[in-house]
């Protein structure tokens, strides 16, 4: 029985090690320190002075490197030149937004807040055009908002405090 337990334990450790090696090699991420399973690189970073820890890592791995916070990879751009290259010289490649897992689960990935890429650009352009047509930046918008508010209050008074559904 003891030999079977040791054998199963060794096999499970080898399986976890192989899964960890496969998952850390996915994607085209910059080099960085080897993460621990589940913990990532959190033990290699001084949480009280994280900027000093990241500076030390940049001396070893260069101005662009990857650290893992838990199981999540984070690409670090360290220094003015690296940030300038990413945000100015290669602005189009870095203009995307991160994923919002909670929004994806709630299925609200469309719209201005949670969209990304081409969809976001189109929604932003449409929204700005519509707001400009409506009078954004002009004093006339205040009058229109007050008029709509008055109409809304009138409609709410007609309900006499009963429940209603807006279509």
UniProtKB/TrEMBL annotation:
Q: Where in the cell is it found?
A: Endoplasmic reticulum membrane; Microsome membrane
SUPFAM superfamilies the record matches = Cytochrome P450
- Which top class of enzyme applies to this chain? oxidoreductase
Which keywords does the record carry?
Answer: Endoplasmic reticulum, Heme, Iron, Membrane, Metal-binding, Microsome, Monooxygenase, Oxidoreductase, Signal
* Signal peptide segment: 1-25
Asked whether the keyword Signal is assigned, the reply is yes
Record flagged with keyword Membrane = yes
Topology in the lipid bilayer is annotated as:
Peripheral membrane protein
InterPro entries on file = Cyt_P450, Cyt_P450_E_grp-I, Cyt_P450_sf, Cytochrome_P450_fam2
BP-aspect Gene Ontology terms: organic acid metabolic process; xenobiotic metabolic process
Q: Provide the family line.
A: Belongs to the cytochrome P450 family.
Query: What's the protein name?
Result: unspecific monooxygenase
Please tell me the species this chain comes from: Moschus moschiferus
Higher taxonomy: Eukaryota, Metazoa, Chordata, Craniata, Vertebrata
